[in-house]
Amino acid sequence: MLQYFFAKVLYGILTLFGVVSLIFFLFHVVPGDPVRMMMGQQTDEVSIKMVEKDIGRDLPTHRQYIKYMNDLSPLSVHVLNNEAHYLYMDIEIYNPIVELHFGKIALVLKWPYLRRSYQSRKKVSNILAEALPATLLLTSVAIIFAFIVGVLLGIVAAVFHNGWIDRTLLVFATFGMSGPSFFIAIIISWLFGFLWADFTGLEMTGSMYEVDDLGRGEFLSLQNLILPAITLGIRPLSVVMQLMRNSLLQVMDQDYIRTARAKGLSPGNVIIKHALRNSLNPVITATSGWFAGMLAGAVFVEMIFAWKGIGWEIVNALQKYDLPVVMGAVIVISSIFVLINMLVDISYTYLDPRVKLQI
Predict the structure, then answer these.
(1) Rounded to 5°, angle at Cα 25 from 24 and 29
(2) Per residue in 100-122, pLDDT tens?
(3) What is d(CA 120, CA 272) in angstroms, rounded to the nearest whole number?
(4) CA-based Rg of the chain, rounded to a whole angstrom?
(5) Which of 210, 330, 344 is nearest to 286 (CA)?
(6) Residue 2 predicted with pLDDT over 50
(7) Can you give the residue ranges of every domain in the chain?
(8) CB burial class (10 A; 0-12, 13-18, 19+) of residue 226?
(9) Which residues sit opposite 78 in a β-bridge?
(10) What top-level class would CATH report for the domain 124-351?
(11) Model pTM?
(12) Average pLDDT of 201-223?
């Protein structure tokens, strides 16, 4: 078990290393000068060079890459007593947890440093920490909604296999998977937040926190979560429903299911106590993949519903060419994706005893 766990951790680290390297080089070969775009076309060259030095873009690309990887690594190497060196240990920036000094070199244990925003000069980690809870809440509610409703509808479709209920649900699943998220978001926002607003009591847009009109500050407004969560959950719901239906139909043809029926068990007991558990593997695989993917897919939904999460921050950063915020957001989403897939792989042995731990 431990060997399998450490192997998964190693694969995850290597995957993240590849993702971070790809992100770095992609964003450093894009056309345009982010410093000039940030400060305006009329800015003098002296000011541009000062800002480039401040954000590290005056270095050769290979040194920028080394510095970026060193900043992201929880265990990093820094130079002491030489402020001109690109790996200089700046305590105010890195906030080290543990330091080990070896002459002029320091080995530092710290939190990954995602740089500062070009625009606000705030730490990217602080910007994302403020936005991440809203996105995690949105995606969590959406995937729970998709999983519960999808499993239930999949069971219903399997029980009424080839009937009109089954066919109707399959048509719904087809439309749910084929509809683009941004288009579905616009339709749902218009229908339930505008056309039928008097009946639903919902708004077209709104974030997790709203400002009180009476000037009493911000307040939690979870009703704004309903429409974006349903919108984000429609596509995974359709996938879960079809997977649950097909998987359950396959399991119901197994010998041990026939044996359970021969013993006189009711159809409900056969499905719940015998067939359901072994039918959930592909469903959980799809759900885990969708949860991580929804963190990226939430960008359009958050913008349309004005839900201020990571997607909202990514779009605003792209409009302002604020590369550190975009790069940091992609790295955070990738890390969550890798972590979720590791946990799902390990959980297989508890969901299905037939699955063996293998490297």
Answers:
(1) 120
(2) 888 889 898 988 888 888 778 78
(3) 54
(4) 25
(5) 344
(6) yes
(7) 2-109, 124-351
(8) buried
(9) 106
(10) mainly alpha
(11) 0.79
(12) 76
